[in-house]
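Justification of resources, computational component.

The compute hours requested in this renewal are based largely on the per-chain cost of generating structure records like the one below. Each record pairs the submitted sequence with a full structure-token output. That output is archived, and it is also reused by downstream analysis tasks.
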Amino acid sequence: MQSFCVNCGAELSPGADFCDNCGYAVKTAPAPAEPFMEETPKAEETFPECAESTASKLIGEAAFGLPGVKQAAEKLSPFKTIGVGVKNLISSIGGLFKDPKKLIPAAVLAVIWLVLLLLRAFGVDPVPCRAASFLTFAEGGVNGGVLGAIGGLIGKGALVGAVTSLTGLFTAQEKSEKRSFGESLKGAFGFDLNNVWPYVLGAGVAFFLFLFISGGAARTAFMGGAAASYLSARAANRNGFLKKLIGSFGSKSSGNTGKGAHDFISGLASGFGVSSLIGLSDIDLILIILGAVLVLGGAVMMILKAAGVLNKGKEAAAQ
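The structure output for this chain reads:
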């Protein structure tokens, strides 16, 4: 029996056959059954990252933290994960036209890059211009041919994404959206000492990725590396595209793929930060050697871990 009258909406007394308010027969006129519809959770509730700025997703976090919609219920294969990520990226482009103010950081940086490159082309390159070029990664993609141009474009995208993200943190109106810089990176650089190989491998990969985005001019790519480090640190604490993609390469039967992905991305964050500092020396060979050592070391530890050698050593030490 319904608890409210379908005729006037008044609350019914327990066991009443007629409405006390309008006299409508309760039993003879049951309320029509409503069709069952499962409530679809909002994107912001299922994936908190969706509430962040669209510009950050499109430019910087497309590579580091784009949320993978429809991946919460099951673990997808790498190709399916990439497909979902690309689909989400394309679908989010429409959001740019709804709130163009979110593109202001990207527009400002684009104007600065254009002005600095034009001044350099005309031989005007005083110290202030060189400093602005360094701080905005204006020379990203200028050197290194086609690969250098692609790498520089990715590095500039990371810088735009980082600036947009930080702007969103400091200008958020809602208290729930306003988090300090430290809180956004909390726990991002930690790793499991009992399973250190993903962290080491991620750090080594970051060295080579930094060389790629520097386009053969590591000294000028400091800000690009710093931006990549920041975005990686944020991605480590979010269940976004990058974490899902890395986790998709693990065994479906393993319940620790998420932790391994977190450690790998944490290694990326540390590797980008260290390589950007070393890059100031402008000696690419150091970056190549350190990157190779870390990648090989991480690969060896992964093989030993899979073979159970490391586990045996720890068990013997415990005894």
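The chain has a mean pLDDT of 75. Residues 1-37 form one domain.
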